[in-house]
């Protein structure tokens, strides 16, 4: 197996390890007459020259073709190795092996193999950038073979423009996954995120992005960081994800109010510096806790015996010293982590970073699903209590309850992408005529939609900044909730997580003029709730009276698979925002 070839002296250091074949395409003949010494010597020299100069004439018969699909980053190196392999004249069966290398995004091929509808061409050998793709594919389609070997390696690293590394270290400290989580923690508005902006590759499309997410999750779990912080980081990153690695690396040099920090493969940083030749090169930053490696597995998917034989021979070729030298020359490491000259200069480290344990299939699937659900669209209406007690001051803050909750609400909007649909209501009693306890301040719709001459996101912020409590207002929560629920149900969006967020300082419903009772509200919600079209209610209650209504508010929220939170410190609402966001991972079955 592996075929036969006919030369001992080829370019780029490739050398034959077999005896020359005796086959010739032009037939066989015999020397019938003894030749004179000089003539015979000249003829033999000519034959020898023909064999060395024309190694392609080693094989006969129909070509045995191998179709290789490689990740775009490793495509050039694999193509160069294939070209030498073809020149060597490997013979399989009665034909000469011919390797053709195409490139396709690993996510696209993975989607095709798992039945997700991706459009990848026919192939016999697949070389994605990471076995994470193969793990995901095999969980959905066990018929896909397991990888037989890793052909190269490239660690997932953080990266920044060389011009800002010193400033980055000042504001973030050493490069680490833990510090990255802190910089993307939406609840920590005073943290390093004020000075550092983290850019990530979309984990659904890029293995380096998924590897970074898995690394951050593993480090967070080890450190005992709460799920809500990791979810908050994921949500923040979802707003700043970049689909293309080169686009991410190019953006590192764009000046702004915050220092950009990216995530990439080590080889991606090297390739960017050598192909784009930026004025200031990007620098790889190796996480202190270790990292995951892109491992470029070889997966033979050919069913034809001849193609499989060629595939096995070519995979063996990829492990030869000559092939590994080619890969190292283009910024890759060998499967055991050895870097060549390319990764021993300009901020790169010749020594491989510590490798984090490879996650199992369930962990990879769970993280992929979590990212998918975090990125589901949002359709949210916020009901803000403007009853009289919201005008009370909060000791030690210099703010009223109304001012504090408005400020936190503005902060809470920031992680939501522009594709979100949001709206704002206020509620108390008799806000829009006798018996109407609610009033729409901003209709629910896309944040980027123009409303009253401004974007909806900006209009919501304006309304929040200017909202005031009604000195004589009570808390008509039940009627307001019922009306909001009906509105959200009428406009339900299946591609989004539909939620009603209530922020109040009361003990639930307090409507002395009548309206819907607590029991009537529960009956209404249980009747209207549809698990196939879930609309969840989240209630955040704060203030000294809030605990009194905790039982009823929890019953209201649970009737819609939602939740109710009672907080003592109004600033803790930031954490509750993240807890509520983490419910996206289990909705509607939390």
UniProtKB/TrEMBL annotation:
Keywords: Membrane, Transmembrane, Transmembrane helix
Start and end residues of each stretch annotated as Disordered: 1-27
Entry's transmembrane regions: 31-53
Pfam families referenced in this protein's UniProt entry, alphabetically: SBP_bac_11
Signal peptide limits: none
InterPro entries associated with the record: VWF_A (IPR002035), vWFA_dom_sf (IPR036465)
Chain ranges of the VWFA domain: 379-581
Protein name: Substrate-binding and VWA domain-containing protein
């Amino acid at each position: 197996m592996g075929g036969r070839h006919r030369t001992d002296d080829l370019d780029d250091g490739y050398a034959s390890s077999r005896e020359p074949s005796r086959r010739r395409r032009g037939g066989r003949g015999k020397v019938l007459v003894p030749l004179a010494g000089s003539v015979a010597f000249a003829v033999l020299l000519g034959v020898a020259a023909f064999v060395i100069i024309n190694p392609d004439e080693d094989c006969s018969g129909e070509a045995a073709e191998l179709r290789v699909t490689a990740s775009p980053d490793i495509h050039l190196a694999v193509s160069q190795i294939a070209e030498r392999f073809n020149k060597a004249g490997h013979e399989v069966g009665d034909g000469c092996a011919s390797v053709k290398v195409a490139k396709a995004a690993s996510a696209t091929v993975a989607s095709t193999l798992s039945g997700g509808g991706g459009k990848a061409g026919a192939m016999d050998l697949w070389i994605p950038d990471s076995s994470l793709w193969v793990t995901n594919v095999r969980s959905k389609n066990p018929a896909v073979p397991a990888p037989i070997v890793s052909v190269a390696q490239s660690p997932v690293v953080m990266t920044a423009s060389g011009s800002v590394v010193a400033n980055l270290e000042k504001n973030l400290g050493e490069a680490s996954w833990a510090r990255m989580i802190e910089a993307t923690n939406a609840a920590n508005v005073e943290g390093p995120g004020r000075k550092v902006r983290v850019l990530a590759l979309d984990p659904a499309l890029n293995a380096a992005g998924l590897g970074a997410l898995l690394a951050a999750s593993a480090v967070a779990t080890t450190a005992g960081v709460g799920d809500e912080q990791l979810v908050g980081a994921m949500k923040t990153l979802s707003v700043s994800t970049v689909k293309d690695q080169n686009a991410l690396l190019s953006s590192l040099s764009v000046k702004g109010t915050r220092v950009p920090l990216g995530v990439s493969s080590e080889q991606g940083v090297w390739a960017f510096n050598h192909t784009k030749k930026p004025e200031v090169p990007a620098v790889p930053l190796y996480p202190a806790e270790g990292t995951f490696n892109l491992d470029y597995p070889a997966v033979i998917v050919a069913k034809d015996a001849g193609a499989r034989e060629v595939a096995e021979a070519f995979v063996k070729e990829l492990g030869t010293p000559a092939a590994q030298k080619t890969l190292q020359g283009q910024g890759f490491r060998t499967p055991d982590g050895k870097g060549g000259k390319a990764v021993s200069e300009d901020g790169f480290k010749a020594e491989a970073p510590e490798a984090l344990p490879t996650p199992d299939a369930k962990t990879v699937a769970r993280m992929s699903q979590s990212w998918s659900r975090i990125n589901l669209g949002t359709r949210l209406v916020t009901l803000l209590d403007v009853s009289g007690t919201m005008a009370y001051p909060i000791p030690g803050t210099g703010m009223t309850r109304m001012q504090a909750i408005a400020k936190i609400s503005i902060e809470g909007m920031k992680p939501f992408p522009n594709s979100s649909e949001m709206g704002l209501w206020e509620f108390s009693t008799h806000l829009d005529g006798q018996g109407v306890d609610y009033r729409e301040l901003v209709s629910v719709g896309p944040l980027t939609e123009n409303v009253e001459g401004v974007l909806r996101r900006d209009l919501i912020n304006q309304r929040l900044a200017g909202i005031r409590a009604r000195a004589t207002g009570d808390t008509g929560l039940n009627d307001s909730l019922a009306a909001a629920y009906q509105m959200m149900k009428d406009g339900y969006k299946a591609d989004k997580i539909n939620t009603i967020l209530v922020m109040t300082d009361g003990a639930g419903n307090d409507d002395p003029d009548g309206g819907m009772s607590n029991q009537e509200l529960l009956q209404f919600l249980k009747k209207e709730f549809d698990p196939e079209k879930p609309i969840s209610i989240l209630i955040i209650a704060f203030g000294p009276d809030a605990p009194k209504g905790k039982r009823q508010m929890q019953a209201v929220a649970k009737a819609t698979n939602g939740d109710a939170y009672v907080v003592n410190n109004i600033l803790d609402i930031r954490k509750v925002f993240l807890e509520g966001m983490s419910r996206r991972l289990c909705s509607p079955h939390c």
